[in-house]
Write a structure and sequence with these properties.
By secondary structure, the protein is an all-alpha fold. It has eleven helices and no strands. The chain starts with a helix and ends with a helix.
Length: about 325
């Protein structure tokens, strides 16, 4: 009896490890697809979020998403839309390994019997747990990305009246070195962690729950294994759109904190940033760049979930 129990336990552990490895590999492929498709949208979003507040009577640096694209391409060429992609692309394996693996492990913990699909509420909990875990990697990665994306928009802005990236960075490693050397060491890389939690936990909970719910709607039941690529793209796009519904202001706060001048900060923290943006620009200030963010989320997550599902299916 003991030997049989021990063998069964080892078999179960092996299957769990195999599933985790498949989630890791599939998440990496999905994440790469997400970054390649979505990064130009993200660049425009960050430029709109972090541009200095114009003085009374003066127009903003960018009048909207299309204007930001035109100015970026005119000044830097098409490659300007991919500025800062090195940081998230280099860490995409770790980010998506954590996101999809933690989600998969939580599914295993919540599942009552092998092969029984989780409820949508349970998928929501799995997404929240995955969002919490991935925040610790997303925060420093996005700080580097935001500094690179925003430095063109912040060039020449007053250090008194604007959020300013006072240093000209040569690339992702240069940003990391500067922060570690001049902005409080490793702690500086986690600037904006609280609003990252506020974005990733509810955002991923909603996204994964929506993804599963929409797949079941398309399949007419809980068995979604027969869905085609078109249905998966549609479900991924809808899920991506759901991510930003309630968390976008947290992303705006995160972005302005991460590009704030360390020596002469405009904001004392997340709550102070929220209040000052609301006071200076109203509710619309908390939704700067929402259009590009929504566009990115729909197309990038459609690509991500399709790549994830196809890779996961091919691995068995």
């Amino acid at each position: 009896m003991f030997c049989l129990s021990q063998t069964g336990s080892r078999s179960t552990s092996f299957l769990e490890m195999a599933d985790a490895a498949k989630d890791l590999a599939s998440g990496t492929v999905g994440g790469a697809a997400q970054i390649i498709v979505g990064h130009p949208f993200d660049t425009v979003k960050v430029k709109l979020q972090s541009q200095p507040t114009p003085t009374p009577g003066q127009p903003p640096r960018y009048t909207g998403a299309i204007d930001a694209v035109k100015q970026t391409v005119a000044a830097e060429g098409p490659k300007g839309l991919y500025k800062g992609m090195g940081a998230p692309l280099a860490t995409v394996a770790a980010l998506n390994a954590v996101l999809f693996t933690v989600r998969g492990q939580m599914e295993g913990l919540l599942r009552s019997d092998l092969g029984v699909p989780l409820t949508i509420s349970q998928q929501f909990v799995c997404g929240a747990g995955a969002g919490f875990a991935v925040s610790f990697l997303a925060c420093p990665t996005e700080l580097v990305k935001c500094r690179l994306q925003a430095q063109g928009a912040l060039a020449g802005a007053s250090t008194i009246n604007s959020v300013v990236a006072a240093v000209k960075y040569d690339g992702p490693m240069d940003v990391a070195r500067h922060v570690l050397r001049s902005e409080g060491g490793a702690r500086g890389l986690f600037k904006g962690l609280f609003p990252t939690f506020a974005r990733e936990i509810p955002g991923n909970a909603t996204m994964f729950a929506t993804y599963e719910a929409f797949k079941r709607l398309l399949a007419g039941g809980s068995d979604t294994s027969s869905l085609g690529q078109g249905s998966l793209i549609m479900a991924g796009g809808v899920a991506g759109a759901s991510f930003w519904g309630i968390v976008y202001p947290a992303d705006v706060v995160k972005s302005v904190l991460q590009v704030d001048d360390y020596k002469n900060p405009k904001y004392r923290g997340s709550v102070d940033a929220f209040r000052k943006i609301l006071k200076a620009e109203g509710v619309k200030g908390l939704y700067k760049g929402f259009g590009p963010a929504m566009g990115r989320s729909v197309f990038a997550n459609a690509a991500c979930f399709l790549a994830y599902e196809m890779t996961r299916s091919s691995l068995g």
